[in-house]
Amino acid sequence: MPLCFLRLDVSYEPPVIVRGLLAASIIVLTACGPAPKVVSDPYDASKIELKSPPATLSAARHSGPFSKGDSLNFDAQLKPLDPAPIKYVQLDTSHKLVEIAPGVKFSAWTFGDQVPGPTVRARVGDKIHFSMTNRSDETLSAMSMVVAPMMHSMDFHAAMVSPQDKYRSIAPGQTIEFEFTANYAGIFMYHCGTPMILEHIASGMYGAVIVEPKEGYPTKVDHEYLVIQSEFYVKPDPAGQKVDGTPVYVLDADRLKAAQPTYTVFNGVHNGMVKKPLVAKPGERVRLFVLNVGPSKTSSFHVVGTIFDRVWLEGNPDNQMRGMQTVLLGSSNSAIVEMMIPEAGSYIMVDHHFANASQGAIGLISTLAQAKPADLEHHNMEASSAPTDPKIMQGKLAFESKCLACHSIGQGNKLGPDLAGVTQRRKDDWLAQWLAAPEKMLQTDAVAKAMLKEFNNIPMPNQGLSKPEIGQYIAYFHWADSQKAGAAKAQSAH
Ligand SMILES: [Cu+2]
Questions:
Q1: CA 153 / ligand 1 centre spacing (Å)
Q2: End of a domain among 376, 410, 426?
Q3: N or C: fewer beta carbons within 10 Å in the chain?
Q4: What is the Cα 88 distance to its own chain's centre?
């Protein structure tokens, strides 16, 4: 058989016209000259496993921990591969409050009781034996409002299986079990696929499966870390529910449909890896497993201060690029990026779509992990310090979502100055002019010029603020400055 012969081993009978066209193209293809050299293809259909037993459903429910399995990883730090050829993975669904930014407790839906869900680490050829109980009906003490029993399901991008069989929605109290073989190397998203899928993903139902090549990666590294980017679309509960005196945040359906996130984050927490940098020493090589789950935004993943020596798109070394500054990831795209840490410093991971970075998609790979700067320490907002005036509250929320990437209040300088006491050192007029057009002030105003110098010539970007918004920020700054020292901190979380 000539090698360019079109193989058609589908059982589907095409309509007459299509058959005619296929026949014609086969004739063309069979006449296409000498056969190319045969190279063995590790992904040839004869070498991959496409069979899996049907999923089973039962009414026996899991109790105890919401996740189990030796191949599971729970945060950015990844364990080496577990060598077992069958990975038993239990990820139950839960509904719970998770703190996605300082003081912002979001009513989330989860896999494995965390957002993002735990990461499965496997190798090409491994079988993943998965089981999940829908435990969305379980009551958490004092959080009855979070319980809204509903259907959920699991969709593994790492699998090649019938979605109608394996990815079906199960009711609260039901358990689904199925198995698949990891055929392709990569970093694959998993998520709930129950309608409205957008709502289930935005509520927190996602995670990653890392599949290593059978023979491992072709390079050696000193550290391996996972970075998952995702968006949150939240608003204070219109029904006014609170927990420990602070509002509960719920999904904001309008923002969700308009793809206007309130927070864009790495590993589930606004500025999370600023407070807890990933560790590396000068001269070390770092491998980042990066997945953008979206649900609706792309990520221009970039690390300030170094270059990606290798980029393996989708996490498969067959898709190699070298010397990249940024890797573009659509929703559910991933990449392994490897880089050298050239010298002592804090290398800033950002989504180079800076609107996303300013919403919290920022983190550090740092050689200075021991000497954590005080300005990035975590302090819980004291309940008594939450403002009650809606205008001030608006200002506080806006500040936490747009400004925390570069500022703190009372926690020291970041990229920009600590704004504690700003209403004492600047007049309201000055602040209003600054917030409306920092780029103009930097040209004309002596105070602004001096500040620019002090802050390493990093100009504050124009934040595109409206007059009323500027009023809210200034009202919030006055309120913060009126609180007794330390009571009104706004800072990065965890
Ligand atoms: Cu779901």
A1: 6
A2: 376
A3: N
A4: 24
What tokens does 490 get?
Answer: 């706004």
Q: Compute, in angstroms, the gap from residue 73 CA to the centroid of ligand 1.
A: 21
Ligand 1 centroid to Cα of residue 482, in Å, is: 44
Q: Are 164 and 300 in the same domain? A: no
488 belongs to a structural domain: no
- 232 found inside a domain: no
For ligand 1, the distance from its centroid to the CA atom of residue 96, given in whole angstroms, is: 13
Q: Three-state SS for 447?
A: helix
Does residue 405 share a domain with residue 337? no
Average pLDDT of the residues of the chain: 86
* Cβ(336)–Cβ(287) below 8 Å: yes
The verdict on 387 and 371 lying in the same domain is no
For helices 467-482 and 428-436, give the axis angle rounded to 10 degrees.
130
Which structural domain range is residue 181 located in? 56-222
Dist. CA 158 → ligand 1 center (Å): 18
- pLDDT for 37 beyond 70: no
Residue 408's pLDDT is 86
pLDDT tens digits, 215-228:
999 999 999 999 99
Q: How many Å lie between the centroid of ligand 1 and the Cα of residue 107?
A: 13
CA 115 to centroid of ligand 1, rounded, Å: 13
Query: Do 297 and 398 belong to one domain?
Result: no
Gap from CA of 82 to ligand 1 centroid (Å) = 28
Cα 351 to middle of ligand 1, angstroms: 27
Q: Which of 69, 52, 81, 74 is nearest to 165 (CA)?
A: 52
Q: How confident is the model at residue 494 (pLDDT cuts 50, 70, 90)?
A: very low
For the chain, what is the domain count?
4
335 lies in the same domain as 428: no
Q: Are 283 and 341 in a shared domain? A: yes
How big is the chain, counted in residues?
494
Please check whether residue 204 lies inside any domain of the structure. yes
In terms of domains, do 344 and 440 share one?
no
List the one residue out of 324, 263, 331 whose CA is nearest residue 288.
Answer: 324
Whether residues 389 and 370 share a domain: the answer is: no
Ligand 1 centroid to Cα of residue 363, in Å, is 28
Q: Could you report the per-residue pLDDT of 142-159, keeping only the tens digit for each? A: 555 556 788 999 999 999
Determine the Cα–Cα distance for residues 218 and 224; give it in Å rounded to an integer: 14
What pTM was computed for the model? Answer: 0.67
The rounded Å distance from CA 192 to ligand 1 centre is 5
Spacing, Cα 380 to ligand 1 middle (Å): 30
428 CA to centre of ligand 1 in angstroms: 47
Q: Give the pLDDT of residue 448.
A: 94
Instruction: Read off the CATH number of the domain in which 105 is found.
Output: 2.60.40.420
The closest of 338, 340, 357 to 349, measured between CA atoms, is 357
CB count in 10 Å sphere of residue 391? 15
Distance of CA 319 from the midpoint of ligand 1 (Å): 32
Which among 360, 376, 392 is the end of a domain?
376
